Amino acid sequence: MSAPIAPERVLPTLNADGTRRWIRPRLYPGPKWRARRITAWALMTTFIALPWLRMGGKPIVLLDVPRREFTLFGRTFLPTDGVLLMLLMLAIFVAIVLVTAVVGRAWCGWACPQTVYMEFLYRPIERWFEGGPGAKARRSGALRSLAKYVTFLAVSVLIGNTFLAYFVGTDALVRWAGQSPFQHPEPFLVMAAVSALAFFDFAYFREQMCTVVCPYARLQSVLLDRRSLLVGYDTRRGEPRSKGKPQPGSGDCIDCGACVKTCPTGIDIRKGLQLECIACTQCADACDSIMARIGKPAGLIRYAAQESIETGGRARVLRPRVVVYAGILLVLLTALVATAGTKTRAEVMVLRAVGAPFELRNGLATNQIRVKVQNRSDVPASYRIELLGAPGARLIAPENPLAVPAHEQRSTSVFVMIEPRLLPHGQRPVRFRVSDGNAFSVEVPYDLLGPETAAPVGGRP
């Protein structure tokens, strides 16, 4: 009786008959894998620990969307900090372009959450319950599979709760953990949705997130050049291949397939740079272990520039595009720091009231003015409003000083009454001083308006 023929493969994750090709990469521990494991565990620990850490009595990271307050490293930013957000997003985008131009897709293989959690959390759990790629007897156990998926779900719920902590804070999270979900349905639904997505992704979708969904790989042709570092196969040294052991006149590659067996996206790196490659260097560790067995030098598959692999020389990392990207990033970061450093404890806006620009009452020109104060500090404050540069004018402020809670905005209407003869050409420049009696004081220019000539008492211009 002949053995069943394996289905032909058309894509790394797709067979010719349309069925899913499940990838179970074989692990070849090596120096690069150990370095990636240290990096991955450091990143996962940081992700879990950040919401619990405090700086200056505040969370290091808290993205309070309902209150529109964003705390980063102990400093709270408000929606009015749109320039800061724009500079931050531009800096992140340019940083991605710069990193890709220099080290290729190192982000994908070393720091992307998809790779970090898949290769160093979920796959180790799977191997612990079901064994490696050759452990068919263990994989067939229903109880083992059930226990694996229950563990996957528990880990996904932990990720979902940690994600929620970034938006509601750990104090609220701990308090809600002992309450019914019906007492806080919206946060619970957010946590449940994130947990479900994490479970679906890491238990089923897996490498297809990198090969099908993620757009980053499709930008490689734009972001990479021949001097960008990537994981590549040295054809000059490896070809022609021999089978099983080196032959006279053959290259160092013995066509063992270890590089394909260990690839988490199922590609053959010997076919050149492919969009599915996430630069994780697992194939390099696998190949180095085989080279050590057959007495050949390591580095047949290595992290290097395409130019150096093809020519055998050394590629120049510093080149015009890298210098330009680094310069743009430096400018953006400088502007970001400078803008953040100039932010004051409060923001004041002086606006003309809606309607008539002024009224004549009892022979006086009356200007109605709206004063808006946003308290950016962490404590409530009272702001006194004063009129400067208008001798003979009278300021009427129903609420003075104006009390403003921390991180909130309040507005009040004030009235300035002045004789028309003190308004040359119908206007007079003045200043409003708003101060909290402590460290904050600002003067805002404003133009009082009135008639060019006196009008009848009680009339309008």
Work out the helix count.
Answer: 15
Total beta strand runs: 18
Parts with pLDDT < 50 across at least 5 consecutive residues: 1-6, 454-461
How far apart the termini lie comes to: 106 Å
Q: Strand percentage, roughly?
A: 15-25%
- Percent range for helical residues? 25-40%
Q: What is the rounded Rg?
A: 33 Å
Describe the structure.
The protein starts with 8 loop residues before the first strand and ends in a 12-residue tail after the last strand. By secondary structure, it is an alpha+beta fold. Helix content is 39%, strand content 20%. 26% of the residues are buried. A hairpin with a 4-residue loop joins strand 5 and strand 6. It is built from 15 helices and 18 strands. Mean pLDDT is 87; it is low at 1-6 and 454-461.
Features:
5-stranded antiparallel sheet, disordered N terminus, 461 residues, alpha+beta
Task: Give a nutshell description of this structure.
With 461 residues, the chain is an alpha+beta fold.
Helix-strand layout with pairing:
Layout lengths: L8 E3 L2 E2 L15 H19 L4 E2 L2 E2 L1 E4 L4 E4 L2 E3 L4 H22 L2 H5 L2 H18 L5 H4 L2 H27 L1 H8 L7 H21 L2 H6 L6 H4 L5 E5 L1 H4 L19 H4 L20 H12 L7 E5 H6 L8 H22 L4 E7 L6 E3 L2 E12 L5 E8 L5 E3 L5 E3 L4 E10 L8 E9 L5 E9 L12
Helix pairs in contact: 1-4, 2-15, 4-6, 6-7, 6-8
